[in-house]
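Duplicate of earlier report; Putative site-specific integrase-resolvase input re-posted below.
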Amino acid sequence: MLKPKEVCQKLGISYRTLQSYVKKGYIQPVILQSGKWRFREEDVERLMGIVRKRKVILYAGVSSNTQKDDLVNQVKYLEENVKEYDQVITDVGSGLNVKRKGFFKLLRMCPVTLMKPKG
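Output:
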């Protein structure tokens, strides 16, 4: 049996998201006499097949080749301050330049969720 914190770590989700999954019926907790939740390993493993872990992408950019040292410093700062990340994407080019390959690569990696208005 796993504690909620352990489940969150395995799934890469927050405690609030875990609460939401329980409310939606995605996973069922075992409620102890104390009222605390525990989760069966097999339920967590089943849910692991459904839940996609979020990717953390670090992005840094500068305006010109003369600022490449600044780019190196930006990346170093990000890497030092973000504990876990999957990838680093960098760009050299004006903020108004629409040919920023790294930025558009980052956008393509973002999942698109369409929201339907209630009513």
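The chain has two domains: 4-48, 57-109.

Merging into the original ticket.
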